[in-house]
Write a structure and sequence with these properties.
With 299 residues, the protein is of the alpha/beta class. It contains 9 helices and 8 strands. It has one domain: Alpha/Beta hydrolase fold, catalytic domain (Rossmann fold, 3-Layer(aba) Sandwich), CATH 3.40.50.1820. Helix 7 links the parallel strand 6 and strand 7.
Amino acid sequence: MAPVGAPAGKETFVLLRRLILIVFLAGCSSQSDSPVSASDRETLERTAEAHAHDVPVATPAATTPPVAAVTGKTVSYGTVGGAPVEGWLVRPKQARGRLPGLIVIHEWWGLNDNVRDEAGRLAAEGYVVLAVDLYGGKLATQPPAAMKLSQELTANPGPAEENLRAAYRYLDKVEKAPRIGTIGWCLGGRWSLRAALLFPDQIDATVIYYGSVKVTDAELATLRMPILGLFGSKDRVVPLPTVTAFEAALQRLGKNADIRVYEGADHAFANPSGTAYDAPAAEDAWRRTTAFLKDNLDQ
């Protein structure tokens, strides 16, 4: 039982922190060649706290159907370490010819139905969308499992980078997409930025929903595409000073960037399965996202 006067869920956070430490010790002992930095460790711990009471299932009230009919299928879009990787490919049902492409990157739960639904909503706006799987088919349904998967990914980013290169090649060579963008939420937001850094001259637009943006000026200097960043003022995973520093660096470097901070919104404010879901912020962010993609991909 939590102490009298303690904030609701505090005992859960304490227990979760202990579990996180165990996971990190186990993970680092098995991947000593790729240790997790103190900064990344803090980000992952705060992510676990933010999702401590979440499950990866959207509530009906927060689920928005696509604005047009779409068709989706599982595709093998490349190989990582010699093994095939599969993702979810979606396009407008009535579309003909080449379409702009969009790489969708999942949250820390993995490529689940929520992400497929978001991919469908984006496809309905006129894109061929590839929702990638950075976990190689693994899914988490509880925070400790998601924590373990995200920690493994962070400790050993090489396969994920290879994965994103394969996704880009698929949209470029197979789908013949004339322009390609990236979008991701939470862990996927971080990797949306990482994808942009992998293809600084090829990616045409990048959207970051409350993903870690701790990168150097030298890295940001390589970017050529416009960037849309969407964050919450109450987010402890990606705190406001970090967002402010990111925006200042982009301005200092003369980059085309629109950084939005939603007052009162928390981490994962656009996640329909999370307790921090904020409908007004999520809806405004979606409008900005679709307008941004239209301006930069529909050309």
